[in-house]
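--- STAGE predict ---
source: upstream dedup step, 1 unique chain passed
mode: sequence only
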Amino acid sequence: MNPNSHRESISEVGVSMAAGRAAPASSQVAPTGVGWSGGAGVAPRSVGAWLLATRPKTLAAGAIPVAVGTALAFGCGMGRVGPAIAALIGALLIQVGTNLTNDYYDFKKGADTADRLGPLRAAQAGLLPPRAVLAGALVSFGCAFAVGMYLVAVSGWPILVVGIVSLIAGYAYTGGPFPLAYHGLGDLFVIVFFGLVAVAGTFFVQAQTVTPLAIWAGVPVGALATALLAVNNLRDAVTDAKANKRTLVVRFGTAFGRAECFVMYGIAFATPVLLLATGFVRWPVLIALLAAPLAVGPLRLVAKESGAVLNRALGGTARVIVVFGLLFAVGLYFGAGA
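--- STAGE serialize ---
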C-alpha cells in the first residue's frame, strides 16, 4: 500500500487479460526452442528467470516519480528521509507486482504468444510456471502493503485510502473482471498513477500536505510514462487486436497512437516552461529541457516505423524518462524553495 502505485510496466508498460474471450489453448504453449529447457540463456525456475520476470529495466520508471516528489519536498524544506525511502521501496514492490500480474494474465489470455514482438516473458517462454508468477505478484503486493502500513503510521489515514486504491489499480491494470488496459483505460491509469498520484503521494508522506506544485510536478512524469505506453501499444497493435486487447491504438488506429505519443512528449517538455512562466518555480527547473535532444530519435521512429523496430523507440523513451526525471527533480529542488 503506497502512494506510488505504478504499474506496468515501464520499459514496457504491459497489459493482460483479453476482455470477454479466452485464448486458444495453442497460444499458451511455450514457443519452440524455449520452453522448460530455458530461453535466451536463462534456466527455467532459476533466479535469473525470476529476475527476468520482474523486468528490472522497468524499475527506473517506478523510482523516477519518487525522486521528483522527494526532491520537491526537500526543496520546499519539508523532506523526510524515512518516508522517502519507504515510498521508494513500496513503489518498486508495486511495480514488480504489477509486472508479474501482467506476465501471468497476458499469457493466460493469449496476448503473449510465440508471435510476441517485445522482450521475453517468463510465463510465455516456459521459464516459470504461471501459478508461481501470480503467487510472486501477490507476495510483492503483500510486501508493499506492509511498507504502506509504516507510511500510514507516519503520515496518517489519507495515505491508507491512496494506498488501497493504488494496490487495487496495480492489479486491475491487467487482472480482475475488468482489466483497465484491455478496455482502453491503460493510458488514463498510467498518467494518474505513474504521474499525479505517485509524485503528489511521495510529497504528501513527507510534507503532510499536497500543494498545487506537487500535483503539477506529476504531469510531465505521467505524460512521458503515457508516451512509453503509446509506443508499446503501437508496436503491439496487431497482436493486441488478435487478443481482443482494446487499447487506444487498437480502437482508434496507429495515427492516433503516433499523435498521442507526440502530444505526451510535448506536454512533458512544456510543463517546466509553464511552471516558470506562472511563477510556481524559478529558472533552475528549465534544466529538465536538456533532455530534449534525447527525444528526437524515439519520435522519429514513432513517426514512420511499426512492429519490432519500435523496441528501439521504447528504449529511447525509457532513457528520456530517466534523464528528464532526474533533471526535473534537480530543477525542482533548486527552483521550488522560497
